Amino acid sequence: MFSSIGIPGLILILVIALIIFGPSKLPELGKAAGSTLKEFKNATNDLMGDDDSEKKEKE
């Protein structure tokens, strides 16, 4: 996924984010992004689990 960006591009993105949001907001943004990904993963796993339980009930 990030192979086309490369290390210099990633560093540039982080520097731009630091300039735009400032050092005090970056930890909050990281925490919000992490919790959003965690919720998405849990919801996806719940949906997959629902499909598996429905298949078992039909059998």
UniProtKB/TrEMBL annotation:
Membrane topology, record value: Single-pass membrane protein
Spans traversing the lipid bilayer: 6-22
Assembly with partners or alone: Forms a complex with TatC.
One GO molecular-function entry: protein transmembrane transporter activity
Highest taxon in the source lineage: Bacteria
InterPro entries per record: TatA/B/E, TatA/E
Record HAMAP family: TatA_E
The protein, known as: Sec-independent protein translocase protein TatA
UniProt keyword NAD present: no
Subcellular localization: Cell membrane
UniProt family annotation: Belongs to the TatA/E family.
GO cellular component, one term: TAT protein transport complex
